[in-house]
Amino acid sequence: MTSLLTWTPGQSTTTFTHSSEPLVLPQKSGPKRAFPELCKDITPSCHLNPLLFNGHLQTMWTAVNKAAPAVHYKRRVFASEESNFKGHFTVDFAVAAPPRSGTAEDDGPEDQGLREDPMGVGHTRLPPRTTYFTDKEFEHLSSEDTKPLLITLHGLSGGSYEVYLRHVIEPLIRASTGESSEQGLSGGEWEALVVNSRGCAGSKITSSILYNARATWDVRQVVKWARQTWPNRPLYGIGYSLGANILTNYLGEEGENCLLDAAVIVSNPWKLEVSNLALKRTWLGSEVYSKTMGNNMRNLFETHKEEILKNKSLSEEKILQLKYLYEFDRAVQCATWGYPTETAYYRDASSTDSVLSIRIPTFCLHARDDPIASDEAVPYEEIQQTPWVVMCATAGGGHLAWYELSGGRWHAKPIVQFLKQMQADVDFSKIDRKVGIAAKGPQGGHQTPFAFDPMRRKAHVPGSEAQH
Description:
This protein is an alpha/beta fold. It has two domains: 11-271 and 350-430, Rossmann fold, CATH 3.40.50; 272-349, no CATH class. The chain is built from 13 helices and 17 strands. The strands form four sheets. An eleven-stranded mixed beta sheet has the order 1-3-17-16-15-14-12-13-8-7-11, with helices on both faces. It is globular. The chain starts with a strand and ends in a 43-residue tail after the last helix. One of its GO terms (molecular function) is alcohol O-acetyltransferase activity. Its EC number is 2.3.1.84.
């Protein structure tokens, strides 16, 4: 772990955690480059708003300050291809700003376009600046272009409209001053889409099954679809909070066969049981954060209860009386997925061990004063055992906050720069994905007949070879 910065008012120290035998990245031109050095070079000094001087103030300010660049989306409803996770989910594709038709609910511009789902599934509401693809538009998405595509997973009960992810997407898709021969949907140098968790962002649930922290089927389907639709595009992934946990699990499940070239993990709660205990330990954690997240999930249930209550093991009366997130997980997630307790669910769905199966360059961002994704839940030791993952931890920043004095969000700077640097300089075709960690303990140590499988899960479909 290497300290980079000295403290001044509003400045947050930054540390990096990585393997002592780091991944070496082949460059498109020039000498090879160590992965941790690239991450350090693209990470600017972290200057935060000195008035928001701790993680609580930073985090709570996200409920007040909703300023963010406008991102416009076209939506498509996908039918799940996973027999054990039936239903529908939505994907929102970032597009160039269409003609304006009025003012959106957040006082930004509203878009002209199709406001009824051509698939017939529909929505409970459409987020601002979101319309549907027509069938014809969607059928003509396929192309041979080489524009990089960012696939995004949002946080718990969020969606494509979230401020923190728009701060990252907008500078990537912003139209360049020069003319591009590959205009695409966004009109900029990058393309981007957001996979909305089921029932989130105004989407409709069409089965009794909600998503959970290790439900990777939808993102896997979208990544495969993107590869088939755009065979020449470099694919990148980014996940925030619960979406970061899901994405980390996906990366571990895919291993060296992952179709993504690189990924970014932001404010991951990692060890879910540890993060839950940390929340329950303090009044703010319990009565503010856990209660707020519990309310959000209860509201999600109320919106979709007609479908969810087709699971006859659920009690509407009990669910509507829940206050905290762990109570919701106990009452709903356990009954849905077959876990005996919420702590069993947390242990099984945690992404800590998944780190050890990742085989693509992965940049992690975390604030050590995050009151929701607790610092004690971060797998610092595991990250030091793999060359594929680098953790950048700032002393301040809260949960998905990182507010600067200007009102900007610091996290967007290293993330955008990382993605652009990887795309511009790294020759992914020359990376050996078989480079990993010793399966039987630390290299050079005692040789044991036992092997550690980081992706061995407890909850699975009996008789199924694959546990994801």
